């Protein structure tokens, strides 16, 4: 009996020690959780947390940036085209036939605004210019608005003349063969003329000479029918419409290869 009583007492003491140990461990765990919470650490695992369903301010900013990016990418090409159109390229519509067959009625042409602003004009260039002295009162071949289009024949200092009646045009005493651009069956000039091209001016003629009120017809306009270089808006380079006639406009500069520089004042 004493042995059993002693063993029972020992068992009871051991059981109580285990219970105390478990209680201490629980207190330590509770203390740890409280300590963690006090230090601001989230005891809930990240995988169990849910993000709010509504958009954050950062999300809204990303949307606005998307629109800004779209506007930028669309706006830059438009700006480039506008700058090219304003400073480099001119566009004109041809409503009549003084430049047949080189340019047809209704053709649309692009011009380079770099000439004569930055590059020199050459004999043979197809030029668009402002009406120098009310030519449009007699001329149907205007290139949109108050502009006309003709071929440049004489540069400053040149003497341009023709005996008429089918005779060739001469520049500084040299005959030129204009069959490359004059309309077939049309004479270089049906009447005689002789003009000295003054400084800062050019002499122009239409390719359809029988239907072109050009420099020959305006010798009494106060400038002897000449066009101030400052009134030249550009050199026509290409026909872009209609598509079936799209192509480069040639200056046929080889026609003038043998013409010496002019010296007339």
UniProtKB/TrEMBL annotation:
User: What reactions does this protein catalyze?
Assistant: Cleavage of hydrophobic, N-terminal signal or leader sequences from secreted and periplasmic proteins
Question: What is the name listed in the Swiss-Prot or TrEMBL entry for this protein?
Answer: Signal peptidase I
Q: Does the keyword Cytoplasm apply?
A: no
A GO term, aspect molecular function: serine-type endopeptidase activity
Please give the biological process terms from Gene Ontology that the record holds.
Answer: signal peptide processing
Q: What are its E.C. numbers?
A: 3.4.21.89
Q: How does it sit in the membrane?
A: Single-pass type II membrane protein
Stretches the record annotates as Disordered: 1-28
Organism of origin is Bifidobacterium subtile
Major site of localization recorded for this protein = membrane
Q: What are the record's GO terms for cellular component?
A: plasma membrane
Show where the Peptidase S26 domain sits.
68-241
* Sequence similarity: Belongs to the peptidase S26 family.
Entry annotation: catalytic residues: 98, 150
Q: What keywords is this UniProt entry annotated with?
A: Hydrolase, Membrane, Protease, Transmembrane, Transmembrane helix
Q: Which region is the signal sequence?
A: none
Give the stretches traversing the membrane: 71-94
Give compartment(s): Cell membrane; Membrane
Against Gene3D superfamilies, the record matches this protein to:
Umud Fragment, subunit A
């Amino acid at each position: 009996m004493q042995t059993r009583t002693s063993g029972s007492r020992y068992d009871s003491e051991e059981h109580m020690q285990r219970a105390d140990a478990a209680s201490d461990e629980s207190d330590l765990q509770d203390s740890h959780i409280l300590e963690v919470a006090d230090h601001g650490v989230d005891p809930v695992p990240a995988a169990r947390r849910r993000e709010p369903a509504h958009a954050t301010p950062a999300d809204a900013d990303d949307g606005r940036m998307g629109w800004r990016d779209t506007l930028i990418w669309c706006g830059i090409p438009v700006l480039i085209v506008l700058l090219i159109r304003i400073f480099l390229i001119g566009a004109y519509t041809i409503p009549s036939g003084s430049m047949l067959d080189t340019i047809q009625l209704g053709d649309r042409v692009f011009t380079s605004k770099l000439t004569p602003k930055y590059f020199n004009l050459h004999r043979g260039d197809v030029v668009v210019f402002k009406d120098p002295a009310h030519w449009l009162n007699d001329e149907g071949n205007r290139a949109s608005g108050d502009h006309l289009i003709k071929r440049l024949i004489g540069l400053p200092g040149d003497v341009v003349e023709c005996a008429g009646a089918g005779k060739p045009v001469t520049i500084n005493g040299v005959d030129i063969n204009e069959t490359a651009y004059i309309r077939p069956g049309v004479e270089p000039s049906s009447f005689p003329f002789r003009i000295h091209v003054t400084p800062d001016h050019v002499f122009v003629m239409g390719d359809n000479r029988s239907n072109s009120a050009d420099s020959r017809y305006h010798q009494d306009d106060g400038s002897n029918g000449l066009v101030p270089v400052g009134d030249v808006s550009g050199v026509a380079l290409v026909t872009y419409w209609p598509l079936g006639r799209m192509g480069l406009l040639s200056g046929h500069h080889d026609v003038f290869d043998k013409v010496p520089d002019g010296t007339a004042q």
